[in-house]
Amino acid sequence: MSTSNKSTPEQEAALIEAAYQHLLMGYLNSNHRKKIEIIEKAYHFARNAHEGIRRRSGEPYIMHPIAVATIVSREMGLGSTSICAALLHDVVEDTEYTIEDIEVQFGPKIARIVEGLTKISGGIFGSNASAQAENFRKLLLTMSDDIRVVLIKMADRLHNMRTLDSMPPQKQFKIAGETLYIYAPLAHRLGLFAVKTELEDLSFKYEHPEAHAAIAEQIITSEAKRNEIFDRFAAPIRERLDKMGLTYEFRARVKSCYSIWKKMQAKRIPFEEVYDLYAARIVFECPNEADEKRICWNIYSEITDLYRLHPDRVRDWISTPKANGYRALHITVMGPDGNWIEVQIRSRHMDDVAERGFAAHWKYKIGEGDEENELAAWLQTIEDILKNPEPNAIDFLDTIKLNLFASEIVVFTPKGELITLPKDASVLDLAFTLHSQLGTHCIAGKVNHKLVPLSHKLNSGDQVEVLTSYSQEPKAEWEKFLVTAKGKTRLRAALRHNRRVIIDKGEKRLQSWLVANGIEQTSDVLTRIISNEGVHNKEELYYMIGNDEIAVSDQLLRKVKPQSEGIINKWLRNPFGGGKPKADAPEAKAGDPIDTKQVFVLKTENGVSNYEIASCCRPIPGDDVVGYIDQNNRVIVHKLECPTAMRLKSSYGSRLVQTRWENRSERFQANMHVEGIDRRGILQEIIYIISTNMSIDMRTLDIQADGGVFKCDLEVLIQDANVVTNLCKRLKKVKGVNMATRIS
Ligand code: MN
């Protein structure tokens, strides 16, 4: 039964214009600098963006942003930046425009606020809204790098609650519940008392329509009697206040339906027995802030002369304001009908702050009303509250909870799940928090769609995606950028597990090598190796072998049985299957068993190679290589173009030998570098090509993304150089990649 459905386009345009003018008038009457131009621009931009769209109620959509901006301006006292952001708050979410468009038109400040608002709306609340509620409150508070996001979100919710009528009942129920659970407590914490009360009452109205109606009805029917008692109570007090020469307002304030209902529920009493249905409030004008406290206590003194004071119910929130900034003096005295009456004593300034939160402070800064500075000051106050809980305050628990937030951040998963982490947590912390496996295989992260290394520190409100690779392995040095206990524990466990795997590998390698060389594995043999290698125990030996720190080679053999004649004979027959002792024959020259005229076959058997890969150029099969026979009669394989190889060639030409790889099932390490323009999904695409399409194992991946450009170094395990060449070709075809190359 909306009237706007029936109105003509002209009437509708007039309606919109009137709402907008109402907003402007409110702004012009405030103490803010008059930045009309940008507000005009935001209004036209939003109006154009939402053109033709209607709210469920049938009214043009633009009425909603205008209403939110009006709340932001008139009820919260915020300035032009907030008004613009409020006007634009649904543009990115509901229309084709992007944050970038907003930034181009309105600059980064407004764009960031709109972005924050877009991020926290929608998608977050699935079916488990209540489970997420505490996190969400924290998120809103910790996102206080621009508190305006929170305030505008509040205004948005308030307007949606005021117009909840047009929603279907089940939706009303959900929105009302969420409001009561999330927004009202948050408004309370921020000191937005009027907003909090209204949100609570509106929620109550939709959740318990009958109870709400009944209480509202009873408030009206009991009014006459209440007024009569109050007038009797107030008359002598007024006399005293007048004598003090004060300008003041003295009224009875009936509690909200919601708080009356709560009291009835908690005490299991009917409406008639709620004795403190209302509180009396004295608000006095006080141009000089320094006099506030004194006047409050003077009033206290006058009232307690007249009525009996309840000694346990004096609340001095002037000397120690509430955590949310509330200041007032509350006393409870015996009224004329024998019931206790609460009297709240406040200056005008205190009253404004109580109703509108810190936003009210702006009203008192005339002229130099720079919103930025004022916001910074407000933010500081909130931060102070976060850091210094007041142990004696009534809302002790509230403050403690707030204090916890200061050291926490809240981030989103791509599914919109909210995760709380300690401050300074990294992408890797998040990965380990979500799942052990995610942590151990984490290769990088995407924060707000930008590629970041796994050490990247997260901020509240970040949307974080964890990128993994099956071949990634946990590393001890990761502990440096873990701050969560969970992350550290899980990393250590993974490393322990990995160590176990390496130990097993090492043990097997040593065993099969001993078998291959006809050596019986006795404890004597092991002890000898252990003492010779200078390791502490079996485990360490196996670990070092498994980790390629100790080569299972001829040198090791010498240590096992240095005197063994039979073995030496065996070496002579097959020098590279076994090896030759170093100290015994350090200079193998004339009798050198390697024939440099023949092609030397590079072999690996049972994990033991008859050659070494030069660490300077790391050749792999498929590369043009040359073997160099070193002092120990080992063949070291270099790339042909390797500078070291060239030097060797010129000085030790006779020690060079042509080589050929025999066993192609072995895999070799190659290093690659990929570079390009960062875009959403590019890394996954690259990883998909490497791991899934080409079935190549990645050992490490190191990514740096900066200013929309990513650079990525990776280590892959491949059979020969052709694979890398193909891989580079494939990667270069990925949109955005402009370089993919093998590096040494
Ligand atoms: Mn909205």
Can you describe this structure?
With 744 residues, the protein is an alpha+beta fold. It has 4 domains: 9-206, Hypothetical protein af1432; 215-371, 2-Layer Sandwich (Beta Polymerase, domain 2); 567-661, no CATH class; 668-743, 2-Layer Sandwich (Alpha-Beta Plaits), CATH 3.30.70.260. Helices cover 48% and strands 16% of the residues. The protein has 27 helices and 22 strands. The protein has a 5-stranded mixed sheet with strand order 1-2-5-4-3. A 4-stranded mixed sheet has the order 14-16-15-17, covered by helices on one side. Strands 20-21-19-22 form a 4-stranded antiparallel sheet, with helices on one face. Helix 2 (36-49) runs parallel beside helix 4 (80-87), helix 4 crosses helix 6 and helix 11 (209-221) crosses helix 13 (257-267). The radius of gyration is 38 Å and the shape is elongated. Manganese (II) ion binds at residues 64, 89-90, 156.
How would you describe this structure in keywords?
48% helix; single chain; five-stranded mixed beta sheet; alpha+beta; binds manganese (II) ion; 16% strand; 744 residues; Hypothetical protein af1432; Beta Polymerase, domain 2; 4 domains
